Amino acid sequence: MPAHGDFFTRGLGNEQTPEDLVRIPFMLKNRIYKDEDIANIMHGNYLRFVREAWAE
Question: What integer best gives the mean pLDDT of the chain?
Answer without folding.
Answer: 77
